[in-house]
C-alpha cells in the first residue's frame, strides 16, 4: 500500500523533473536556427515590422532574461500565446482542445493491446514451444520491431487505398459537425473532446460509427505495438509463475490444468504485466507524435510537430511540458497500482 | 492491515475487470445501428470544398495565409472587391469611389446588415481601420499580432474621415495608384464596430456582411461550416451551406472528388489532373495565375552576378521550357518578365529567353568567366504554388548550369527558415515566387525588384544590410532607371495609358538586365464536380462561392 509520504515525495520530485525538461526545451529551441519573428511577420513584412514583432514577443531581450521570464511564467502556469500556429490563441486552450484527442487514441490503442496481448501471452505460455507459441512469439517480435511510421502507411495503403474499408485520415467524416454542448437532464454540458464519447452523448449514432471507423486503423497500429510488448511480458511472467512451488503443489494434489493455470497462475502472473501496461501507456502518448502525423489526427503530437516546423516557441514549450507531466503522472500511477497488487512491496 | 490490503486489492482487480468488460461490450454493441446514413446529407444545397490545409485563424487582421482567406472571403465584404474570375475591381460595400490626387472619396451602400443584425455604416470601416493601424485605439489589435497586410492595405493612408453615415473621405500620404485595388485585399474586410468594441474574439468567430455566415468552427479550423446569409445585399448565395474541410493528402482529395464526396478541391498535382481528366462527372478548371516563379541572383554576395552578361548567360543556360513542360507537366507558362499576361502593363513584345547554352558560354567568356564559377543554389523543400516541384527544378537548373561550366551546389531548406535565409541575403541564388495580393503591376515590381532605398552612385545593387532595405527584393538589384519608372508609375492616378506604358518599359528593362532567371507563371487549378454550376476559378480574391449552385 502506497503511503501518503510516497505520493507527496513523488509529486515534489515533479518540480525538478519539469524544471529540467523546461530548461532543455528552452535551450534546444534557442540554439536551433530560425527566427520566429520573421515567420510571424510573414513573407511580405519589412525589416522594421520583423524587428517590431521581435521586440513585442521579447526575443530581442538577452537570453537569460527570456529564460527567467519563461520560468516565471511557467511556474504560474502561464504558457503564453501561440506565435504562428494559431496566432493570438492561448497555448492552454490549444492544448485543452488536443489533449483529449491524444488520450482517446492512446486508450483505444492500449485496449486493443490488452485484449489481444493478454490471451496471446497466456496461450503462448501454456502451450510453450508449440506451433501456436512460435507464431505468437514471431508476431510479438514483429510488433515490437516494426516502427509506426512504417506500419501506419502500410495499413493505410492496404485498408484505405486498396480495399477502401477504412478512411485514411482525420477523426470523423467531413459531413459531421457536432454541437458544442450536450444536454444532461436539461443542463447544457460542454463536450468532452473524446469523439467517440461525444457522438454517443449527443445521440449522433451515425457520427459515432464514422468516428469509430476513423479510429480503427490508428488505434490498431498502436495496439499492435503494445500487444506485442504485453504478450511477451505475459508469457514470460506466466512461465516464471508456473515453475513456482505452489503450482507444483496444486498439480501434485491432482488439480486440473485449467484451474491451476487460470486460478493460481494467471493472477500472480499479472503483477509485472500491469506495470508494463502502465509504462506502456506513457510510451503510447509519446508514440502519438508519429501516429497522429501519419493519420492526420490533430492531437498534441501533431500540434508539436507543426509547432516545431514553424518555430512556435510557446506551443513547443507548452506541449513538451504537458507530455512530461502526463508521462510522470502515469508512471506515478503505475507505482501506486503496483503496491496495491503486491502488498509486499513497500514504498 | 493485512486483510485490508488484500481486500482493497481484490476490489480493485474486480473493478478493473468489470470496467474492461463493460468497455469491450460497449465497443461491440455500439456499431451496427444507424450505419445506413453514413453518406451524409448529400450535395443538394450543401457545397463542399476540400483543401490541403486548415485555418490557423479567422482574424483577417492577423493572418497572412492564403488558406485562412479562402474562408474569410465568404464572410467579410470589403469596400471594393475583385470581379469573380477576372483581374478587375468593382464596388462592393462602396457604391462609388473616386481618387482625386491624394483624396479618395467613397459613397457607401445603404441598407446592408452585418450578420449580427447591425446596420453597416462608415463608422464600422473607421473602427476596422483603427483596429488594424492605430496603437492609440483601445481595441487596437496589438503590435505583436498585426500582420504585414496592415501596411499593404492601409499603409498609404494618412487619415480616414467619416463625412456621413455613408460617406468616407480618405486622405493618402502621397499619390498612389493601386489604392483601391489594395482595399480589395482580404485584410480590407469590414468588421462591425460594436463587436470590435465589445472585445469579440475574431480568431474563432467571424461577423461580417458577406454572403455566408459562420456556423461552426470545428477541430481547430480543420472543418468549417458556413450558412447562407439570407439578407445578403448582392447576388446569391445559391447554396444553403458551405463546408470547408481539410484533407492533407493530395491524392485523397482527388479520390473524394471523383467519388462525389466533395464538390471543389484545390492543391492538385499533375497526377491528380490526369486522374480527374480520366473520370466522368468531374473536371479540371484552370486559369493562368497571377504569380511568378523565379531564380533570384544575389548581386551583393556573388560578384559574377554584378555583371549583366553573366546574369543574361544564366537565363540562356537554363532550360525553362523543360521545367515548365516536363517538370510542371505543362500546367504553367514560361515567363519572360516579372508579371503574367493578365496584369496591366504586360509587354507582349518580350519573349522568354531561349535555351541557348552556346550563347551563355559566349557571354560568360566575355565577362571573364569562361571557366565558370562555383555558386550555391538555394531551394525550398515543399511545393509552393509558383514552383510546384522545387527539388526537381533545382536539379534541372544545376545540370543546365554545369553544361556551361557553372558548378552549382544545391542547398535545401524548409520554407520558414528559407524565408529568413533569403530575406537576409545569405544565398548566392535562390528560388522564390510571388502570388499577387491585388493584381496590380506595382504589387510585383515594387516589392520584388525595388530596394526601397537609394543605390550608391554608379552601382546597380545595394547591400541587404542597408537600413530600410526591402527584404522581398532577393537579388539586391537597384537599377536607377527601373526604380524611377516604378516610382513614377505608382503615383499616376489619372491616365491609365501612361501608367501602362511605364510598366511596359519596366518589364523590358527587367528582362534585359536580368536580375532574375525568369521561370514561370503557374496555372490556378481546381477540381470541380459537374454538379456544380457557375463556379469561376479566380486568380485573385477568390474563391467566389456566392454565385455557385449545386445540383
UniProtKB/TrEMBL annotation, chain A:
User: Among its keywords, does the record have Membrane?
Assistant: yes
One GO CC term of this entry?
Answer: plasma membrane
Q: Which residues form the ABC transmembrane type-1 domain?
A: 99-338
- Where is this protein found? Cell membrane
What is the topology of this protein in the membrane according to its UniProt annotation? Multi-pass membrane protein
**Highest taxon of source:** Archaea
A Pfam family it matches:
BPD_transp_1
Q: What keywords does the record list, in alphabetical order?
A: Cell membrane, Membrane, Transmembrane, Transmembrane helix, Transport
SUPFAM superfamilies per record: MetI-like
InterPro entries linked to this entry? BPD_transp_1_N, MetI-like, MetI-like_sf
| Keyword flag Membrane | yes
Write out the GO biological process terms: transmembrane transport
Locate the transmembrane regions by residue number.
Answer: 105-126, 138-166, 211-230, 269-290, 320-341
Q: Which family does it belong to?
A: Belongs to the binding-protein-dependent transport system permease family.
Q: What is this protein called?
A: ABC transporter permease
According to its UniProt entry, this protein's organism is Halocatena pleomorpha
From TrEMBL, chain B:
- Top-rank lineage group of the source organism: Archaea
Which of UniProt's keywords are assigned here? Signal, Transport
Pfam families per record: SBP_bac_5 (PF00496)
GO CC terms, sorted = ATP-binding cassette (ABC) transporter complex; periplasmic space
What's one GO MF term for it? peptide transmembrane transporter activity
**InterPro entries from the UniProt entry:** Peptide/Ni-bd, SBP_5, SBP_5_dom, TAT_signal
- Any GO BP: peptide transport
Region described as Disordered: 29-50
Annotated Solute-binding protein family domain residues:
89-452
For this protein, the record's PANTHER family field holds: OLIGOPEPTIDE-BINDING PROTEIN APPA, PERIPLASMIC BINDING COMPONENT OF ABC TRANSPORTER
Recorded family membership: Belongs to the bacterial solute-binding protein 5 family.
Q: How is this protein named in the record?
A: ABC transporter substrate-binding protein
Amino acid at each position: 500500500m502506497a503511503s501518503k509520504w510516497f505520493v507527496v515525495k513523488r509529486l515534489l520530485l515533479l518540480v525538478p523533473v519539469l524544471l529540467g525538461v523546461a530548461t532543455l526545451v528552452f535551450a534546444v529551441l534557442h540554439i536551433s536556427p530560425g527566427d520566429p519573428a520573421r515567420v510571424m511577420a510573414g513573407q511580405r513584412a519589412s525589416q522594421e515590422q520583423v524587428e517590431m514583432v521581435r521586440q513585442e514577443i521579447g526575443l530581442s531581450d538577452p537570453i537569460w532574461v527570456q529564460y527567467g521570464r519563461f520560468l516565471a511564467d511557467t511556474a504560474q502556469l502561464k504558457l503564453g500565446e501561440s506565435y504562428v500556429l494559431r496566432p493570438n490563441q492561448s497555448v492552454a486552450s490549444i492544448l485543452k482542445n488536443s489533449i483529449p484527442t491524444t488520450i482517446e487514441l492512446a486508450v483505444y490503442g492500449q485496449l486493443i493491446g490488452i485484449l489481444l496481448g493478454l490471451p496471446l501471452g497466456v496461450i503462448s505460455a501454456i502451450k510453450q514451444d508449440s506451433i501456436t507459441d512460435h507464431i505468437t512469439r514471431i508476431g510479438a517480435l514483429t510488433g515490437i520491431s516494426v516502427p509506426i511510421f512504417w506500419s501506419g502507411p502500410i495499413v493505410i495503403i492496404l485498408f484505405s487505398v486498396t480495399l477502401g474499408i477504412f478512411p485514411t485520415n482525420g477523426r470523423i467524416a467531413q459531413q459531421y459537425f457536432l454541437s458544442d454542448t450536450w444536454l444532461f437532464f436539461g443542463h447544457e454540458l460542454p463536450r468532452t473532446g473524446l469523439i467517440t464519447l461525444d457522438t454517443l452523448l449527443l445521440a449522433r449514432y451515425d457520427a459515432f460509427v464514422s468516428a469509430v471507423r476513423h479510429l480503427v486503423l490508428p488505434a490498431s497500429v498502436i495496439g499492435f505495438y503494445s500487444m506485442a510488448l504485453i504478450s511477451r511480458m505475459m508469457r514470460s511472467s506466466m512461465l516464471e509463475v508456473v515453475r513456482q512451488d505452489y503450482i507444483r503443489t496444486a498439480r501434485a494434489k491432482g488439480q486440473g490444468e485449467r484451474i491451476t493455470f487460470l486460478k493460481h497462475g494467471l493472477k500472480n502472473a499479472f503483477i509485472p504485466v500491469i506495470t508494463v501496461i502502465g509504462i506502456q501507456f506513457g510510451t503510447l502518448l509519446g508514440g502519438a507524435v508519429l501516429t497522429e502525423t501519419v493519420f492526420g489526427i490533430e492531437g498534441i503530437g501533431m500540434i508539436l510537430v507543426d509547432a516545431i516546423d514553424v518555430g512556435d516557441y510557446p506551443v513547443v514549450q507548452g506541449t513538451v511540458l504537458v507530455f512530461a507531466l502526463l508521462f510522470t503522472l502515469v508512471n506515478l500511477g503505475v507505482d501506486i497500482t503496483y503496491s496495491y497488487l503486491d502488498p509486499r512491496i513497500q514504498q | 492491515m493485512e486483510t485490508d490490503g488484500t481486500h482493497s486489492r481484490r476490489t480493485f482487480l474486480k473493478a478493473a475487470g468489470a470496467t474492461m468488460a463493460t468497455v469491450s461490450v460497449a465497443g461491440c454493441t455500439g456499431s451496427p445501428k444507424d450505419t445506413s446514413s453514413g453518406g451524409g446529407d448529400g450535395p443538394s444545397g450543401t457545397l463542399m470544398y476540400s483543401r490541403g490545409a486548415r485555418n490557423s485563424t479567422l482574424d483577417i487582421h492577423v493572418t497572412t495565409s492564403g488558406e485562412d482567406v479562402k474562408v474569410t472571403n465568404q464572410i467579410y465584404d470589403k469596400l471594393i472587391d475583385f470581379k469573380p474570375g477576372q483581374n478587375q475591381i468593382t464596388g462592393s460595400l462602396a457604391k462609388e469611389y473616386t481618387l482625386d490626387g491624394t483624396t479618395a472619396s467613397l459613397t457607401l451602400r445603404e441598407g446592408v446588415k452585418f450578420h449580427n443584425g447591425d446596420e453597416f455604416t462608415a463608422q464600422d470601416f473607421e473602427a476596422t481601420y483603427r483596429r488594424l493601424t492605430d496603437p492609440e485605439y483601445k481595441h487596437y489589435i496589438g503590435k505583436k499580432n498585426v500582420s504585414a497586410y496592415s501596411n499593404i492595405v492601409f499603409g498609404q493612408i494618412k487619415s480616414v474621415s467619416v463625412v456621413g453615415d455613408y460617406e468616407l473621405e480618405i486622405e493618402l500620404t502621397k499619390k498612389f495608384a493601386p489604392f483601391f485595388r489594395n482595399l480589395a485585399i482580404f485584410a480590407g474586410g469590414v468588421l462591425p464596430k460594436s463587436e470590435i468594441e465589445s472585445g469579440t474574439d475574431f480568431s474563432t468567430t467571424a461577423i461580417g456582411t458577406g454572403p455566408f455566415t459562420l456556423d461552426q468552427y470545428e477541430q481547430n479550423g480543420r472543418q468549417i461550416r458556413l450558412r447562407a446569409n439570407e439578407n445578403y445585399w448582392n447576388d446569391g448565395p445559391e447554396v444553403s451551406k458551405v463546408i470547408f474541410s481539410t484533407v492533407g493528402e493530395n491524392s485523397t482529395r482527388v479520390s473524394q472528388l471523383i467519388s462525389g464526396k466533395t464538390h471543389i478541391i484545390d492543391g492538385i498535382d499533375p497526377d491528380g489532373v490526369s486522374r480527374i481528366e480520366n473520370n466522368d462527372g468531374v473536371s479540371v478548371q484552370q486559369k493562368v495565375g497571377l504569380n511568378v516563379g523565379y531564380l533570384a541572383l544575389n548581386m551583393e554576395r556573388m560578384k559574377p552576378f554584378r555583371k549583366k552578361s553573366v546574369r543574361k548567360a544564366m537565363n540562356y543556360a537554363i532550360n525553362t521550357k523543360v521545367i515548365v513542360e516536363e517538370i510542371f507537366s505543362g500546367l504553367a507558362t514560361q515567363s519572360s518578365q516579372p508579371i503574367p499576361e493578365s496584369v496591366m502593363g504586360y509587354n507582349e513584345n518580350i519573349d522568354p529567353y531561349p535555351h541557348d547554352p552556346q550563347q551563355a558560354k559566349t557571354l560568360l567568356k566575355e565577362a571573364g568567366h569562361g571557366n565558370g564559377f562555383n555558386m550555391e543554389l538555394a531551394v525550398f523543400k515543399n511545393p509552393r504554388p509558383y514552383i510546384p516541384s522545387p527539388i526537381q527544378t533545382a536539379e534541372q537548373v544545376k545540370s543546365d548550369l554545369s553544361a556551361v561550366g557553372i558548378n552549382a551546389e544545391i542547398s535545401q531548406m524548409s520554407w520558414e527558415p528559407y524565408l529568413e535565409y533569403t530575406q537576409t541575403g545569405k544565398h548566392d541564388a535562390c528560388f522564390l515566387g510571388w502570388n499577387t495580393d491585388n493584381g496590380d503591376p506595382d504589387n510585383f515590381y515594387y516589392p520584388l525588384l525595388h530596394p526601397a532605398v537609394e543605390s550608391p552612385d554608379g552601382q546597380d545593387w545595394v547591400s541587404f544590410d542597408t537600413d530600410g532595405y526591402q527584404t522581398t527584393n532577393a537579388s539586391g538589384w537597384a537599377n536607377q532607371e527601373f526604380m524611377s519608372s516604378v516610382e513614377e508609375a505608382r503615383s499616376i492616378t489619372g491616365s491609365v495609358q501612361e501608367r501602362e506604358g511605364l510598366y511596359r518599359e519596366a518589364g523590358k528593362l527587367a528582362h534585359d538586365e536580368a536580375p532574375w532567371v525568369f521561370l514561370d507563371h503557374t496555372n490556378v487549378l481546381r477540381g470541380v464536380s459537374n454538379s456544380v454550376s457557375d463556379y469561376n476559378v479566380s486568380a485573385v480574391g477568390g474563391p467566389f462561392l456566392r454565385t455557385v449552385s449545386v445540383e
